[in-house]
Design goal:
The protein has 219 residues and is an alpha+beta fold. It is 32% helix and 16% strand. It has helices at 30-43, 50-58, 62-67, 70-84, 90-95, 111-120, 174-177, 194-198, and strands at residues 139-142, 161-172, 184-193, 206-212, 216-218.
């Protein structure tokens, strides 16, 4: 976003007042560092993908999600995934002690493999097999309530009108990837004026959001 517009969270929560990035520490507490490492280490087991990891955090009770700090939500999501995938039991989680042997079928990377995974990431570009529906300059409408599951379309942009400014090609679609169905959809950069997003009379600021094709309709 360009300009000095204050972007808030959900309705009634007030403005966001972030720490200036140059002085904000990566971790505020040592336990956050450990939760970050735990999340990465368990993710390398290959039992879930990044969208399933995000959805595990989102599936908390809304009050708990909003009350938790950033890394508390990471912790809750990781615990949920470990339990749902039967990698630990509830007793093990509560006691902090392992019961039984570790499954030999798990993909446990070596230190060398872990460094390679962290440095290379997971490519998301995919061949879609269809032509893009939208062209640069097209006016598009963002569909409301696209799914009740995991999605990467922000709630505040749903129902708004924007303009296609870039086509990124085909990329993994999060809404289906969360179910294990890894398929690609066309991804676009869409420009929104603050009049469209917040009903401002002064369209001085712009917000650019990357949105997948199924989220959009030609206006």
């Amino acid at each position: 976003m360009q300009g000095g517009h204050d972007l808030g969270g959900k309705q009634g929560l007030g403005l966001i007042n972030p720490e200036p990035e140059p002085i904000e520490p990566v971790f505020h507490y040592d336990w956050e560092r450990r939760v970050f490492a735990l999340t990465l280490a368990t993710g390398m087991l290959g039992e879930w993908n990044i969208d399933q990891s995000r959805f595990a955090r989102e599936r908390q009770h809304p009050a708990a999600y909003l009350n938790n700090s950033y890394y508390e939500n990471w912790y809750e999501g990781t615990c949920r995934l470990l339990l749902e995938n039967k990698l630990i039991s509830k007793n093990e989680l509560e006691s902090g002690r392992a019961e039984g042997a570790v499954s030999l079928s798990l993909r446990v990377p070596s230190k060398k493999d872990a460094i390679k995974i962290l440095s290379s990431g997971g490519p998301t570009r995919m061949d879609v097999g269809t032509q893009p529906k939208f062209n640069i300059g097209d006016s598009v409408y963002v569909r409301k309530k696209f799914t009740d599951g995991h999605t990467r379309v922000p709630a505040y942009v749903q129902g708004c009108i924007g303009e296609i400014v870039m086509h990124h090609g085909g990329h993994v679609f999060p809404d289906t990837n969360v179910t294990g169905n890894r398929k690609g959809e066309h991804l676009y950069s869409v420009r929104f004026g603050e009049d469209s997003l917040w009903g401002s009379n002064e369209d001085k600021n712009e917000l650019y959001i990357d949105l997948w094709e199924p989220y959009l309709e030609l206006k």
